[in-house]
């Protein structure tokens, strides 16, 4: 409990940005990202941000980011544009996060992970909305996911039926399998980072806190993502033997298990109904509490799946490979097809 007492002052659900890195400035970040790149199968090559027209605001991130629905004027294709705005005082941790997201997005190419069609470092796009205070924008042109996030779906539907949960879980596992194969640990799997399109495809988004396990992009070990979905070994590495390398993959599995349980229960599972998950409560439940009781309303397959994900000792927790063979995501009659999933998520008006 000493740890709880020591850290009780940290009430926010977000980890603070890492300390400033001496050599990480606007100068070293932005030139590395220009010019924008387009993938070969993008519907139209996006040469310039002025090719895009704002259609609507899709959502806001943690204070630095806004996501717009945009139209590519030449091809009439629709994209999502995530704009991260920095002023001259932007903390270097935020710049690191943005650079990390850009670098990782450039590497990934999977039907289970959000596709990035280009990264721009211009201030032009936001200049109509904001006073130009000498800062800059980092803009990610991403595929547009019409169904929004799983967070939006849960807000509208509360609980999801098991076939929809298993269909979603299977797709997220495929995405994690791909990312982990690239030595990328996501570190922030949560409902608002799982997006759904009009074909019923579920894709992993938001690489702000992702982490390449090996290689030059391993820039910050202490920046870890949202507390609420954080595994015991990431919350309290000393007690649970976290070492920031091997356990990283297991941490993504824990987060997926919590998301799956939340989809079944219709609320965040680690605190009581209506209770806010503050830091101290989460610490107690995740690091010191007993293993969660599996809900009796769930099928044996679902209970077993969640049980294997929420094993507190990361060395005994299921791997993504094991879970891909689990009956919960492999019983044909129970796993929703893309068609069933999209009908549930995007019901006809
Ligand atoms: N590619 C996309 N297509 C459609 N909607 C999107 C897309 N990307 C993001 N959104 C919407 O915009 C919202 C904000 O996304 P953003 O990535 O900025 O932050 P977040 O994931 O909600 O929060 P955080 O900053 O904590 O990660 C999402 O919750 C989602 O509803």
CATH architecture term of the largest domain: Orthogonal Bundle
H/E element string? Answer: HHEEEHEEHHEEEEHHHHHHH
* Spatial shape: globular
CATH homology-level superfamily of the largest domain: Transferase(Phosphotransferase) domain 1
Report on the structure:
This protein is α+β, with helices and mostly antiparallel strands. It folds into two domains: 2-143, Phosphorylase Kinase, domain 1 (2-Layer Sandwich), CATH 3.30.200.20; 150-345, Transferase(Phosphotransferase), domain 1 (Orthogonal Bundle), CATH 1.10.510.10. Helices cover 33% and strands 14% of the residues. It contains twelve helices and nine strands. It has helices spanning 2-7, 26-29, 92-107, 150-157, 162-181, 232-235, 237-240, 246-265, 279-288, 300-309, 320-324, 338-345; strands at 52-60, 65-72, 78-86, 116-120, 136-143, 184-185, 194-196, 202-204, 211-212. Strands 1-2-3-5-4 form a five-stranded antiparallel beta sheet, with helices on one face. Strands 6-9 form a two-stranded antiparallel sheet. A hairpin with a 5-residue loop joins β2 (65-72) and β3. α8 packs antiparallel against α10. The longest helix has 20 residues, at 162-181. The termini are far apart. 40% of the residues are buried. Bound molecules: adenosine-5'-triphosphate (ATP). Adenosine-5'-triphosphate binds at residues 58-62, 65, 67, 80, 82, 114, 142-145, 148-149, 151-152, 192-193, 195, 205-206.
